[in-house]
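notes to self, project folder thing:

trying the whole complex as one job this time. last attempt i did each chain seperately and stitching them together was a nightmare. two parts in total, labels are on each line so i dont mix them up again. if this works i'll redo the older ones the same way
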Amino acid sequence: MANLLEVKNLTSGYTEKEVIKNLSFSLEKGEFLGIIGPNGAGKTTLLRVITQILPSWEGKIFYSGKDIKEFPLKDLAKEVSFLPQSIEIPFSFTVEEFISMGRFPHLNRFEKMEEYDYEVVRKVMILTDVLELSSKNVNDLSGGERQRVYLGQTLVQEPKLLLLDEPIAHLDIGHQIKILDLIKKLNQEEGLTVIAIFHDLNLASEYCDNLILLNNGEIHKIGPPNEVLTYRNIEEVYQTIVIVKENPLSSKPHILLIPQWSSK
Amino acid sequence: MKRNVTVFIFLILFLFLTFFFSLIFGGRKILPQEIFQLLMNKQADEILSTIVWKIRLPRIILSLVIGAGLASCGCVFQGILRNPLAEPYTLGISGGAALGAVVGNFLSNLFVGYYSLPICSFFGALASIFLVYFVASRKKFSVTGLILGGVILSFLFSSFVLFLFALFRADKFHNVILWLMGDLSSAETETIKVVTFAVILGFALLFVFSRELNILTLGEEKATSLGIPTETVKKLLFLVTSLIIGTCVSAAGLVGFVGLIIPHFFRWLSGSDQRILLPASFLGGAIFLGLADTLARTIIYPIELPVGVITGIIGGLFFLIFFVRSRQWQIYWK
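result (full assembly):
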């Protein structure tokens, strides 16, 4: 299968501080890739470079075989959409207004939303189960609802590659599964390629085809969950002791934490 | 959608009403039939004709245009800086333009004559916008922190203006104080032409970017990933707003709070979508300042107040209420 995304010797960071160093990996079309690693490992930075929010210092990123820098930003936005870790909206937009903003890359400056655009927005709102919230103020919603609305905005972009920065942080387990199931469904049924950052290693293990374990801006290990999520890898990178078992239903690795305060 | 159409129909209606209302009221009340006569037959009363054409009409146009311009800039700053309290005056940008205008005034004998005022005022506005933006993006101010900085800046600039005048043009000191408060009485016809041109052109450019303005409110990350080259767009918008603010301030000094009250009112009335908000504020700002100036001209006649006194009282009270109730507003910032 063809590579949708190819990252070659990528180095980047903020002003003086180098955050990711010489990263190389590739991503097949239709793949669900998880990025895991401790705080400050460079997970968010990597997604920011792919979306052109941060410039790369060295190395190249190819999307569909073409250097990503050759894409005008608006054309890239038709292919790749990004859900940041947190979005703050200082003003009151309705759910429908907010989700419709995701159509921006598909519209010319003086072009209005047409029937097709409204149809896309409607479909996404049904898919993310926010249709009945459509005229509510986004800031008045609960955390779970809000995350579905944010995700909805990235989906009406009709992306081929979806980048998610901790899509389930701050959500209860019910909402976590609801969001991830939805993304997995799009991945399986529509062939949407996904890169998602996870803090929860067990959910990463369940949903992802492959994982990248980042440490200090470098790839510590890349591969399917059962190769990456070994107790040795995790203990080295996270500096904490764990036991790795197998989920009896999915036979994916499952990590158990071992607190060190010991009450013997 | 229908609701917004109604809003605009009412706005245009109110704009015409404001216009006639302002034309009629003043030191000498003018009856509607007198205006009609004036329009019909050219041999009208000389004094009446002078009052209408030479005094009242230019001033009304100026008040409408400046109100429209400042309210539009308020919408834009609130969007870009993601700060509901941002507007040319509270950010200290009008103050920067005022300092620029004063420098221009001193230089007017040296080059381009009269035009050095709006030109220097434009650069004053531009410089202070970039100062505010640079500091705001470096220091990650809170909503109120940034506004506090802006008010301090504004105070500093005004003091510099007064200092310069006391030093070099003590004879004009009184006029400058009035001008600093926001005063429409001293503008010349040439000024009015420049301001009208700049505001209409500026607004048209801002309106073209209203969709980008919506998305910029979601923050840099979202805006970039939706395909907007954020830095370029922001710089462009700063250039256009400087044009509006620079010309407005060179004509009328520091008219405060129009850019704060008007967008807030329309955000409450018809939501935050800049494609509606921006044109609504443009019209609403014109109506507001038109009425405010008529009030300023007539309230304690024969003394005419600077219009900034009226907007200052209304805006100041609004600002105060906003701060007292600010807990509720903080919700929007989590």
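what i see at first glance: Chain A has a mean pLDDT of 93.
need to look closer tmrw
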